[in-house]
Amino acid sequence: MCCLRDSMQSRFLRRAALLIACGSCVAAQEPQAKDLLARGLHLADLYNWADAAPAFTKAEKLFASAGDQRNTLYARLGRIRSNIEREQKTLPKVSAMLAEELEDDPLLQNDKELRMFCFIVKGDVDTETDTGAIYRKLDPSPLEEFLLFDHPSGRTRIYFKVGGGLHRECD
After folding, report:
1. What confidence score (pLDDT) does residue 90 get?
2. What predicted TM-score, i.e. pTM, was given to this entire model?
């Protein structure tokens, strides 16, 4: 009986030590993941997305292993944005996926900071997808105006936006 009780106690102590060790590993990963996410966001603020990619990628893995859904998504969005120059062919799919997530993901519905970051990422993806339609001179030459007649000049678009439509003449 005494031997059985000692055996159960030693099993319990081994399991408790294992749980404590695992818990400390997860707890140690959490600050490291937060530091990596903060570093990625800092580099992103400097518009240095290429250097931010490794930090976002590693933070995403660490947050996922710790079960932190919010920060996993935050790091994933940063990883997506930091790789858009490399993944030009899939940008329309990425844009559609982000639009769907903005509509359906409860985290993106309720967390304003995360939602805003997702909008920033989606806007950058959409801009990379359609860069040709964005550039237009404010005052194009007559030849440029003729060649690009189906795209209003920058000044015309500003007048339409401010003035309210086609009924007003542009300078």
Report:
1. 82
2. 0.61
Let me know: does 135 contact 157? Beta carbons within 8 Å: no
Question: Cα angle vertex 114, ends 47, 111, to 5°?
Answer: 160
Alpha-helical regions (H) of 46-148: 49-66, 69-82, 91-104, 106-110, 112-129, 131-134, 142-147
**H/E element, 3:** helix 2-45
Q: Which residues of the chain have pLDDT under 50?
A: 4, 21-22, 24-28, 133-134, 165-171
Measured between alpha carbons, how far is 120 from 81 in angstroms, rounded to an integer?
9
CA atoms within 13 A on the CB side of 61: 5
Q: Rounded distance, CA 130 to CA 116, Å?
A: 21
